[in-house]
Amino acid sequence: MGTDQQPSSRSALGAWLALGTIVLFAAAAILVFVATRQAQAPTGRLVAPSDQAQQPAPGGGVRDFTLTAAPVALELEPGLITAAWAYNNIVPGPELRVQTGDLVRVRFQNRLPVPTTIHWHGVPLPNGEDGVAGVTQDAIPAGGSTTYAFVAPQPGTYWYHSHQNSAKQVGQGLYGALVVEPGAVPVSILDLTLIYGEWPLGRPQPTPPPGDGADMMRYGVYSVNGRTGSAIQPIRLQPGQTVRLRFVNAGNLTHYVHPHVAYRIIGIDGSQLTGGPETEHAIPLGAAERVEIEFTAPDAPVWITAHDPSPPAREISVVALPYGMAVPPKAPEGSISGQVLDLDGYAARAAYDPWPDGTKPTRSFTLRLGESMTMPSSHNLVPGMPGMPGMNTRYTINGAVFPQTPGLTVKQGDRVEITFVNTGQLEHAMHLHGHAFRLLARDGRSLPGTLVMDTVLAEPGTSYTIGFVADNPGWWAIHCHELHHAAGGMMALLHYQGSQRLAELGGPAGNNPE
Ligand code: C2O
Ligand code: CU
């Protein structure tokens, strides 16, 4: 008996010892985990948005908003559900409509599992409110909150989006419109925003590249105002009514937005235009660009189609038609070739011109944009798209990738000219933070209009010269708004002599602007 028991009690003891060891190891592992977590958690004070406006401009009001970023299941179309990140549980986030001169205060809460920020695209606000992680503030940690406050700029169509890991975060749905009205808009005017986005869904995933340039190959679904296909609602209007549509491209690809009606462009980015000719052409809307059009509602349906080189585009057509009229079954098909507007050549005048004719630059820069593959191999090339870069592509400015790209130093009051020379094979939508610029020339030739914008789409083989006044001290990002390109290196910083950089890359907050 005894002999029978011994081994069993020995094995019981052994089992207890083994269990104890496991428990000890587990406890040790948890301690190590907690310790590392604490070491990684932000320590000390994070750099919050700074230099906040306290007062509206004379005549302006105070507008308070709350935005909360959180994961959400987004239904793009009945049955087509994707995991997204959203402001206030909707994609796009709520449209913030304010008037010029208002004090805009946005209380922001981060309920994402990762750090984030909000950037106010196109708004020339104080540097500390620009929302660029690692440049103007530390990323707001998961569970954290902050406030942004600024005075609403000149009337126009702006937008807001994350500027931390932005290729991922904006792609997941963290964007919304900011509309600045000149004053109260007459109720007789229909004024709507259409925001275009892209989703890596519904298309066989190419093997293997899961890298920076891969998403654009995977976009199988486009959306307008967060919906696609049958979920897109018609716009109802009154014949004879003045209709303003604000197109915002929150995606990475150029969308050719085609209003099938005679219209005029009355705004580009954050500027208002007058005197432009009537047209019916398709508008090339590059990444991050905004175009505002106006037309008189006819007594018939008006289709706003969006064309792209790939098939999903048809699914984001929107129809605007009189109340009570039956929705026509199908958008007009057909090609837009020969019907694309020369947007840079649009002969209109901006309400505010930072570069009156005859202005001489006091500082000039040339930024050469390109791509290079560091590890060319067959799987980096997509069949049928020769030379299309895959996962190891670097997107370069003067041959370098951020943060090794050249810094642009200016001083207050400079008249600054920048020429973007696209030496690559892809389009690059170059965006300057903190300033509105005038588009001065394409390929060295001046343009017929006075176009003032914050993002310029440079096709391969073209060059664009922009001009602006250095009137907003700080450290400002310049980058391609194909956000995978920015993440792949196509970003630089412009800074004012003597101004202090507010935040650094990396660090305890894990700052990573693109
Ligand atoms: Cu739309 Cu760097 O921003
Ligand atoms: Cu680019």
Which labels suit this protein?
514 residues; mainly beta; 32 strands; 37% strand; globular; binds CU-O-CU linkage; binds copper (II) ion
Describe the protein's architecture and organization.
The chain has 514 residues and is mainly beta. It contains 4 helices and 32 strands. The protein has a 7-stranded mixed β-sheet, with no helix packed on it. Strands 21, 22, 24, 26, 27, 28 and 30 form a 7-stranded mixed β-sheet that branches. Strand 14 and strand 15 (271-274) form a beta hairpin. The chain is globular. Bound molecules: CU-O-CU linkage and copper (II) ion (CU). CU-O-CU linkage binds next to strand 5 and strand 31.
Please give the largest β-sheet: 7 strands, mixed
Note poorly predicted spans.
Answer: 1-17, 19-25, 27-43, 207-213, 376-391
Overall residue-averaged pLDDT value: 88
Measure the end-to-end span.
73 Å
- What are the bound molecules? CU-O-CU linkage, copper (II) ion
Which structural class best describes the helix and strand composition? mainly beta
Annotation, overall tally of beta strands? 32
Estimate percent helicity: 10-25%
Shape from CA axes?
globular
Strand order of the largest sheet: 10-9-12-17-14-15-20
Radius of gyration: 26 Å
